[in-house]
Amino acid sequence: MAASKGKKGRTKKNTQGRKSRLWLRDLLNILGGLLAGVLGFWIVQEVRVSRTTEDASQRYRTVIQEDLPVLKQASEEYEALVENEENVPEALQGVDITGALYRLDAYKTVHDDLPGLDAEARPLLLSFYLNLRDAELLRKLIVEQREHPQEMSQILTREFLRTLHEGTQLVPRLLWALGPDEEAKGK
Any idea what DSSP says for residue 170? Predict the structure, then answer.
């Protein structure tokens, strides 16, 4: 009987030691699983961002290459116009500008795509888009002026105010992107 009492006591001691080691092992397994999950999530995000960047780059490359003949022709006309300035009113006589000459709508997400693009491509693409947007505005103004020569000042006023309105709508997002106000921090 004394022998069986001794065995029972030892069993309890070993069981307590095993329980504490199991708790530690479970904790390490949980931490390892969390670490593996975070690492897996990070890898998936990096692959997704990389694909999105490649998709955006390829999409803009395709659109630009498709519109390039029209853009080159307009550029050549401008160079000829600069050389021979007395024919300015006749420069667009043979060109149908009632419709857009390029697909400006293909650049509607350019501001959202910029952060993911190559650092060297960002300012170039933004500048290219802004030039196309300005050219589209001027094209519309020329068409309006041809159709309604008496109302040109009204058209210019409307377009001027529309442009300022669109810029003003970007202010909250721009201020947020620029970060907190240093003067407000100091107060």
Answer: T
